[in-house]
């Protein structure tokens, strides 16, 4: 089961999905952990989670860890299915605790009190696709599972020939 969890096909799909999901989520984690990009840093974020939102401190800590370290792990392609599952749970929790009441649409024109959940559905879709597909090409998962001769990806012509033989 552990082998399947870390399995990575040498395709472009997993690479594109994990770079998109990790690349979008990492700045949010950097806001929460480091205070970058206008964020409040670890202390301010934890105060908001525990004081304003009344979340247990462990949940606040997990949010920060998943958004920051999980996103970096996705970008590197390490344990992508696990981190994508953690992000899927996180995104679901965010929708139900903060965005469901504001409807589907984001608040582009300031016409509603808060943001809708459409953005989070996209993140959830990317996370689920990554769980189904795996890390893809140029991932640590793929590098760790491959033998020394398999560590270099085959040229696209060889890949398409192999796909045609499978079909």
Give the topology, please.
Blueprint (H helix, E strand, L loop, with lengths): L1 H5 L5 H23 L6 H12 L4 H20 L3 H20 L18 H16 L6 H6 L10 H11 L1
List keywords for this structure.
mainly alpha, 167 residues
Verbal overview:
This protein has helices spanning 2-6, 12-34, 41-52, 57-76, 80-99, 118-133, 140-145, 156-166. The protein is mostly helical and 167 residues long. The protein has eight helices and no strands. It is elongated.
Number of strands: 0
Oligomeric state as shown? single chain
Number of helices: 8
Q: Which class of secondary structure composition applies to the elements?
A: mainly alpha
Q: Largest beta sheet, briefly?
A: none
Radius of gyration: 18 Å
Helix percentage: 55-70%
- How far is the N terminus from the C terminus? 26 Å
Mean pLDDT across all residues, rounded? Answer: 89
The best one-word shape is elongated
Order of helices and strands: HHHHHHHH
Low-confidence stretches: none
Strand content: under 5%
Short description:
The protein is mainly α and 167 residues long. It has helices at 2-6, 12-34, 41-52, 57-76, 80-99, 118-133, 140-145, 156-166.
């Amino acid at each position: 089961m552990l082998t399947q969890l870390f399995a990575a096909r040498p395709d472009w799909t997993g690479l594109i999905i994990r770079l998109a999901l990790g690349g979008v989520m990492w700045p949010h984690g950097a806001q929460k952990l480091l205070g970058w990009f206008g964020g409040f840093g670890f202390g301010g974020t934890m105060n908001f989670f525990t004081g304003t939102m009344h979340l247990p401190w462990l949940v606040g800590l997990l949010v920060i860890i998943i958004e920051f370290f999980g996103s970096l792990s996705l970008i590197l392609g390490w344990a992508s299915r696990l981190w994508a599952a953690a992000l899927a749970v996180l995104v679901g929790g965010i929708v139900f605790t903060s965005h469901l009441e504001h409807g589907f649409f984001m608040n582009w024109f300031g016409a509603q009190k808060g943001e809708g959940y459409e953005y989070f559905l996209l993140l959830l879709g990317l996370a689920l696709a990554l769980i189904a597909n795996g890390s893809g090409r140029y991932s640590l998962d793929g590098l760790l599972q491959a033998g020394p001769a398999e560590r270099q990806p085959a040229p696209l012509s060889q890949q398409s020939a192999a796909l045609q033989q499978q079909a």
